Amino acid sequence: xxxxxxxxxxxxxxxxxxxxxxxxxxxxxxxxxxxxxxxxxxxxxxxxxxxxxxxxxxxxxxxxxxxxxxxxxxxxxxxxxxxxxxxxxxxxxxxxxxxxxxxxxxxxxxxxxxxxxxxxxxxxxxxxxxxxxxxxxxxxxxxxxxxxxxxxxxxxxxxxxxxxxxxxxxxxxxxxxxxxxxxxxxxxxxxxxxxxxxxxxxxxxxxxxxx
Length: 211
Known about the structure:
This protein is α+β, with helices and mostly antiparallel strands. Helix content is 20%, strand content 34%.
């Protein structure tokens, strides 16, 4: 077994109808999840599922998110802790002469999770410090105040199953198996919002020293 295989978590599900789109390179998936900023969280609700965008921190075995303790997301998760989390990044618009060959390059991850709700102030504060390591690794901030912690509820969404897919022309992912290779023209999107796109001074631990 290779080192790469050793690092792959048991929850990664490689099975997919479009096997040519399956993304199974775990180090690349992990880097993607640690770099992205926004996920979509889907929860049970009646009569429709409820989906909301949230900032998140990926820990390796869970997603850390939080919300107002008085809102719809909190009520839904208290009622049913099963959540689905989706993270994606569009890369380029693809065009070819045939209409059906209009497509996108992209990365996408879907995780099926069970959320543990944290409502006590001390638990929320500890949760938020771990979550902040993604956004403020320089640790230049003052402690989280009780008043702020008392307004939110934190969720540790433990991953039970995760699948990932991508379509990148450079990796040979042009057309479904058995179909002719489409003559795509590729129009790349500007670099999206991600941690790696920020300048170094965004993580300067001394930014507030003279304020």
